[in-house]
Amino acid sequence: MTATDELNFNDPTAQRLERITTGAEPAIVGPMLAEVLHDPRWVECDVALISGGKSNLTYRVACDAGEVILRRPPLGHILPTAHDMGREYRVMTALAGTAVPVPRTFHLGDADSPLGASFYVMERVVGHICRNALPPGYADTPAGCRKVGEALVDVLADLHSVDPDSVGLAEFGRPAGFMERQLRRWSKQWEASKTVDLPALDALRDDLVAAMPEQRANAVVHGDYRLDNTILHPTKVGTIVAVLDWEMSTLGDPLADLGAMLAYWSQADDSEVLRRARIMAPLTACEGFPTRAEIIERYARRTGIDPSDIDWYQAFAYFKLAVVCQGIAARAAGGSMIGGGFDQAERLVAPLVEAGRQQLSS
């Protein structure tokens, strides 16, 4: 994982196709898929990059046999432990028989593949990926918005209700001490990306360490669960047909997922502090979407997990996002980021810290 995985400041759309084949050239991908999918029609294929993220590269591959999605790491040098294709493939394959909607997985290739990198192939799921707005005419009533919001909560609850042992994920991570490791990891990230002293960020980290709650549950966690990492059914409002972007998944504290989802969430009566700290467009502030309090209550009822410490987890999510933004700003200042719009990341650091401190003191 990289510090830009969670944010995308210079793409106003959730997802779009670009006629870019670098990293998945049709002359390589076609024969390879023909072999692994046992269908010669894949030899002559069309490849397009699906943009909308800064992490693993995602391509739509199409031919007369149909369409699939190919995922591979970014181009160039990466850390050996980063962008683990096998991790995404393993968790989606394991969850295929559960209540959690995931794309069907077809093939996992290693670093010795013709692409020169590890990759996997999965089903292309048709539906809506919504970041800034819902499609025209889709869930365009308060009742429809509520269905979308409740479905998002229910799928998260379903994920956290999966028994890892029963789906072959008993060794998928180390759940004990999960939040301690997360705090250490993101504290180190902050120290590595620090360009100026930010006492308020240091203070938020110290307060999080001092107030860390006891871990109440273990579960498969997604790591970046939010509306635009799901696919909504194209016509049936209130149904999620797939959860995407599993590269940060592991075994850990399920309230970390809930806290992050709440940090991304907006509602109409947000304080000025929370408004300034918004990472995403306030889509969920539209009339009908459940409030954070309603989300917490529904989640607790469906999972039986005690959410009494959820303010801490939401504060941690703001801390983590502040560190991510600081990392983006530092790399942009150093000339290692491509594109524009990254000045917004730096502007968000202080508001995110303020939101975290407000949440921790509430």
Question: Which helices and strands appear, and what pairs or packs with what?
Answer:
Layout: E1 16-18, H1 26-36, E2 46-51, E3 57-63, E4 66-72, H2 85-95, E5 105-109, E6 119-123, H3 142-160, H4 178-193, H5 199-210, E7 219-221, E8 230-232, E9 240-243, E10 250-252, H6 254-264, H7 272-276, H8 292-303, H9 310-333, H10 343-361
Antiparallel strand pairs: 1-2, 2-3, 3-4, 4-6, 5-6, 7-10, 8-9
What's the CATH class label of the largest domain? Alpha Beta
What class would the helix/strand composition place it in?
alpha+beta
Write the element-wise H/E pattern from the N-terminal end onward: EHEEEHEEHHHEEEEHHHHH
Q: Biggest β-sheet: count, sense, barrel?
A: 6 strands, antiparallel
CATH architecture of the largest domain: Alpha-Beta Complex
Question: What is the average per-residue confidence, as pLDDT, rounded to a whole number?
Answer: 89
Number of continuous helical runs: 10
| Low-confidence regions | 1-6, 10-14, 77-82
Describe what is shown at a glance:
The protein is α+β, with helices and mostly antiparallel strands and 362 residues long. It is built from ten helices and ten strands.
Question: What does it look like?
Answer:
There is one protein chain. With 362 residues, the protein is of the alpha+beta class. It has 3 domains: 16-123, Phosphorylase Kinase, domain 1 (2-Layer Sandwich), CATH 3.30.200.20; 126-175 and 219-308, Alpha-Beta Complex (Aminoglycoside 3'-phosphotransferase, Chain: A, domain 2); 177-214 and 309-362, no CATH class. Helix content is 39%, strand content 13%. It contains 10 helices and 10 strands. It has helices at residues 26-36, 85-95, 142-160, 178-193, 199-210, 254-264, 272-276, 292-303, 310-333, 343-361, and strands at residues 16-18, 46-51, 57-63, 66-72, 105-109, 119-123, 219-221, 230-232, 240-243, 250-252. A 6-stranded antiparallel sheet has the order 1-2-3-4-6-5, with helices on both faces. A two-stranded antiparallel ribbon has the order 7-10. Strands 8-9 form a two-stranded antiparallel sheet. The longest helix has 24 residues, at 310-333. Residues 1-6, 10-14 and 77-82 have low confidence and may be disordered.
